[in-house]
Amino acid sequence: MATLTNRSRRATAAAAARAANIRRTWRLVAVLLLVGTLFVYVRYRRQLHRYVRHTYATLITGHLTGLEATPLLAGYSVHGIDVSSYQGRINWKLVAGHQVQFAFIKATEGVTLRDPRFRANWRGARKAGVYRGAYHFFQPNYDGAAQANLFTRTVPLQAGDLPPVLDVEAPNFHDVATMRRNLATWMRLVERHYGVRPILYSNYGFYRRYLAGHFDEYPLWLAHYEVDTPRLPADKWIIWQHSDESYVPGIRGTVDFNVFQGSFERLRSLRIPARPRPTPKPNR
């Protein structure tokens, strides 16, 4: 009987030890999960917050009124947006009333695509007193001359408009040297056509990886989100796209928000100048 009792005690003790080991293991797992979660959150909190905001914006799209407004970025006096058919019908009068002073409007993409709302946005921005510019979304595997030809046949830039823009950010291309040649061809032909130097648009990562040091003669419009200020030196860029999830009255849904580096007078000086009228020849 004593032997059975001792065996029972040993079995009970062994079971208790196993249970204690299991509890310690689970506590260790819980601590590791908590530490790992905190590490991931601290390291990627901006991206996580951004994902949550995007998810929320998608869920509430059907309930938006088109009157929502994101506060303007402090520290800058000149604010602007860029739009495409994605924004749908735009009430440009309301947009202008939210201190939006300039807008870049998508005109073309690749070698065949014309934005279906370009003409309406082009007229609407000018009528509302918003300085307007047009941009082409660059497809790096397509011929640069054909893309330039599509843009110049579509966009009637005139005195008072902002310079043309080439949006270069599509990550899938066959060869970086070919991409750069096509890009350079577009910039050269468009500058020749309009008589004004184009603006180059790209995001921070793409620019640093593929474009920095190759196109420094062109003004840079930099997209860089979730930072307090762009990581490129201030003398490297003229426009900063600081958000792609802002709200502006007159647009139902999110829109890209930008700031111009400098005063409103400097923005005015960037516009395409009026061409001097030819001096009439005297009658003989």
UniProtKB/TrEMBL annotation:
<keyword id="KW-0812">Transmembrane</keyword>
<dbReference type="InterPro" id="IPR002053">
    <property type="entry name" value="Glyco_hydro_25"/>
</dbReference>
<keyword id="KW-0326">Glycosidase</keyword>
<keyword id="KW-0472">Membrane</keyword>
<dbReference type="InterPro" id="IPR018077">
    <property type="entry name" value="Glyco_hydro_fam25_subgr"/>
</dbReference>
<keyword id="KW-0378">Hydrolase</keyword>
<dbReference type="InterPro" id="IPR017853">
    <property type="entry name" value="GH"/>
</dbReference>
<feature type="transmembrane region" description="Helical">
    <location>
        <begin position="26"/>
        <end position="44"/>
    </location>
</feature>
<dbReference type="GO" id="GO:0016787">
    <property type="term" value="F:hydrolase activity"/>
</dbReference>
<comment type="similarity">
    <text>Belongs to the glycosyl hydrolase 25 family.</text>
</comment>
<protein>
    <submittedName>
        <fullName>Glycoside hydrolase family 25 protein</fullName>
    </submittedName>
</protein>
<dbReference type="Pfam" id="PF01183">
    <property type="entry name" value="Glyco_hydro_25"/>
</dbReference>
<keyword id="KW-1133">Transmembrane helix</keyword>
